[in-house]
Fold this sequence. Notes:
Oligomer: single chain
Structural class: mainly alpha
Order of helices and strands: HHHHH
Distance between the termini: 15 Å
Amino acid sequence: MKQLNKIQTAIFVVGALLMLAGAVMGLFKWTWFPYVYAMGAMCFASMQMLQHYEGGNLIIRRLRRIMLVSDVLFLFTAVLMFANQGNSLGLDWIYYLNYVKNNWVVLLLLAAILQLYTTFRIDHELEKEAKNK
C-alpha cells in the first residue's frame, strides 16, 4: 500500500477526529454538528482515497474497493446529517420521518463496520503477502 506523507497523515487523523466529534455532537442535537462531521469526512475520505495498492493480490484489491464504498457512505452520511436538520429536501412529512429522520446513524454504523472489517483484513493480507516474499 502506498503510504501517506506526514501532512497527509495529519489531515487523515484530524479528519477522523472531526468525524468522531461531529457524530457525538449529533447525539446531543447541536445545530452545527453536520458541518464538523462533513469537514472530517471530506478530509478522511480524500486521504484514504489517495492510498493505492500497487500489487496484484485480488483480495486486497477487493478490500480496497469495499473501503472506498465505506468512504462514500461516510460522505453520504454527512448529506443525511444536513437533511436531518429539517425537511430541507421538500419531502412529504411522512416520507421524511420514515426515510430521512435520524437514519444517518444507520448509515454511519454501516460505513464504520465496513471500514473496521477492511482495515483489519487488509493488514492481515499485507502481512501474509510480506511473509511469502
